[in-house]
Every structure is written in structure tokens, then in C-alpha cells.
Amino acid sequence: MSLSRRTLLAACAGLPFATLDPASARSAGQDAGLGALAARSGRYFGAAVSSIDFAGDNAYARLLDTDCSVWVASWEMKWGALMPTLGGAIDFRAADVIVAAAARHGKRLRGHTLLWHEHLPAGAERLSTPADWQRFVAPHIATVAGRYRDAVFEWDVVNEAIEPYDGGADLMRRTPFYAMLGPDYVAEAFRLAAEAAPSARLYLNDDHVYYAEDWQEQRRTGLLRLLERLVKAGVPVHGLGMQGHLDTRRRFDEQVFRRFLQSLEDLGLTLAVTELDVTEAPDASGRSLDARRRRAAEEVRKVLAVALDSPALVGVVTWGLSDADSWLRKRGPDMFDNQGLPYDDALQPTPFRETLASLFASTRSRHAS
Ligand code: G3I
């Protein structure tokens, strides 16, 4: 199996990172870059990055520079990455690599994520009392949000708080955070984040909200209930991040999604399409790469054309730029050469990227009356 780009980069860590001059950027991408195109309608475009992406002068890092106005750490700012063992040492070095690279290249940073039930410090899964929250969780939020108060403009404060299959009437996920404070843990997390980073925009982030299937309708219901409670209680929640892990097998209904966006707008929230990528059906591998890539681009067009109609949508972030290192290829036995991001393994633009460029270039400004 070919070495992933990041594995190769690990071998050349520490080389200077050169930027691509605008002229060659234009010739490379035939446009000013997705970030510049998105800015025309008052929005941002960005991608998840990893600290290893900046390990030297490489074509991928240059694409991240020319195509993105926003970066988000794909794992480095998560509790378990910062603190592998609960109560143990906290190590900001990997996260700081991304913060420094963003400052060097004039990128804004989304923070992902202060509270998530995955990628936790070892031992955190046993936390269960209010005293545990005061001893471990509150300091974690204050320390991380405080450290990056001037570097991160938008935080995913709580990630994936909804899980109807956990059986609760509130449709919320039963996590250690829920065990410690009940459903009010979400409000407390936002209050702590606002205290530590008063200028940051604070988002709830969740997955599976785009498609017209009952289980996703339940998730949208759970999210709206939670957000209504937070807004009515005056909790400093500013937006919803809608993880954009699209899937060519799902059924999209434009009116269903428009109604959901309208309900969110009615709450006065801003919206972001976070983590955009496309999962192909496993049987797709029997079709031509070109046909597969066009199908993935069609899925993006269907959904994003509706999302970009909302003046509340402030940004779009893809979960990486190149298929070469997509998490979608690391899912164990069913992994295959998923074609689901703006650039292919050879860092060539795909129809996915063409679709983003065309949508950004043609959408009306979110500030238009
Ligand atoms: O290589 C690093 C190692 O140097 C480091 O010490 C260690 C710290 O935990 O992490 C190692 O690499 C792995 C990293 O991905 C880079 O590949 C981590 O072990 C691994 O946990 C991490 O997985 C990430 C996962 O979230 C958990 O944080 C994936 O990259 C990332 O794509 C995935 O992203 C999630 C979103 O946060 C939430 N939505 C779903 C999405 C996909 O699962």
C-alpha cells in the first residue's frame, strides 16, 4: 500500500514552508482560490489540517494556503490529543504548530472541539459527578479556550451532543459530560467557553442532519430542541456546525433541509457546513474514477446549493483537501479508495472542487437584502 502523504511528510519535518505566489496559484487552480471565491458572498472556505501538513515545503501545504481562508485542526485540539491521560500533563505542541502556521499565512482558525465523547483522555470515560466536572472538565475548557482566545475565531464547543438511539426523551447522547451534569452540561460548557474566549463565536457541532430519513429527522428534532432551550436561557450559543459527511446512498429532500435551515435562522443562529466530504457506496469501486468523482460532486452540489441559499450560512469547511489522507479511507476492513474531496491522491482538482468554485462564484451575498 502506498505511503500516505502525511507519512512521507513526517520524514521531511522541519523544512521551511513556502507559499505559492498568486500567479502560479491562479494557473494551478484557474481561479483565485476557493477561499477568495467564498469571500465574494461574505463567507469563508476552509479545510481540516493536521500539524504534519506543515512539516515542510510541499504541494499539499501550498494548496491549503491558496485555497483556504480558514483552517481547523482535525485532531490536535481535542482533549485526548492535548492530555492523553486524565489529570496528566497537557501538551500543546502539535496544536501550536497549526496556530503558528495559521498566523504565518494569515488564516483564521476554527477550534475543534472542546467537548466530544471521543478522543478523550484515558480515564475520562469514568467521569460521572459534578465534582468531576469541576475538577477536570471546567479547567480543561478554561485552559484550552483561554490559551487560544486570540487565535481561534469560532469554536465547536460541544460536538455530537445528540443521539436518539441512546433512548433519552431529550434525544441527547449519554456521555460522561451528561453523566456529570445532566443535559445542562451543554449550557455550562458554552458559558465557560464564553468566559475564557469572549470574542470567539461559539458553535454546537453535530452530524447527520442533511438527509430525509427518519433517523436524521430525529437528530434534527433533538438539535432544534436543545438549541431552542439554550437560546431561550440566554446561553451564549452563536451557531450550529453541520458536519457535512455526505453519502451518495442517502435520500436528500430539498424542502426538508430548507425547513431545518429556516428553523435555525429563526433562532438567530449562524450556520457552518463543517467536515464536508462524500462517502461513496462500496460498490462504486466498479465504476470509472471519473464517473465516481462526478457522482460525489453531484452530491455536494445538491446539498450545498440549498445551504448557500441561507444568509445564515457563514462558511464551508471540507474535512481535508485531498482523498489521499481522508479519514474515510481508514475505516478498517471496508476501506477502499473513496473519492470524496476537492483534490485526488495526486493533488489534482476533482469535479468536487469545480462544483465548490462554481457554487461560490454564483451564490448571492449572504448580506444581500
Ligand atoms: O499521529 C498522531 C500522533 O502523533 C499523536 O500523538 C496522536 C495523539 O492522539 O494522534 C495520532 O494520529 C491520529 C490522528 O487522527 C491523525 O491521523 C490519532 O491517533 C487519531 O485519533 C486521529 O483520528 C481523528 C479522529 O477524528 C479522532 O480525533 C481523525 O483524524 C479525524 O478525521 C476524526 O474527525 C472526526 C471529527 O473530529 C468529528 N466528526 C467525525 C470525524 C471523523 O471521525
List descriptors.
single chain, 369 residues, alpha/beta, TIM Barrel, 8-stranded parallel β-barrel, 8 strands, 15% strand, globular, binds ligand G3I
Written description of the protein model:
This protein has an 8-stranded parallel beta barrel with strand order 1-2-3-4-5-6-7-8, surrounded by 5 helices. Helix 12 links the parallel strand 7 and strand 8. The chain has helices at residues 5-11, 22-29, 34-39, 59-67, 79-82, 93-104, 130-147, 176-181, 185-196, 214-232, 254-266, 289-307, 351-362, and strands at 44-49, 70-73, 108-115, 152-159, 201-206, 239-247, 270-279, 313-318. Residues 12-28 have low confidence and may be disordered. Helix content is 39%, strand content 15%. It has 13 helices and 8 strands. The N and C termini lie far apart (53 Å). The chain has 369 residues and is an alpha/beta fold. The chain has a single domain (5-362), classed as Alpha-Beta Barrel (TIM Barrel), CATH 3.20.20.80. It is globular, with a radius of gyration of 20 Å. Bound molecules: ligand G3I. The site of ligand G3I has 12 residues, from helix 5.
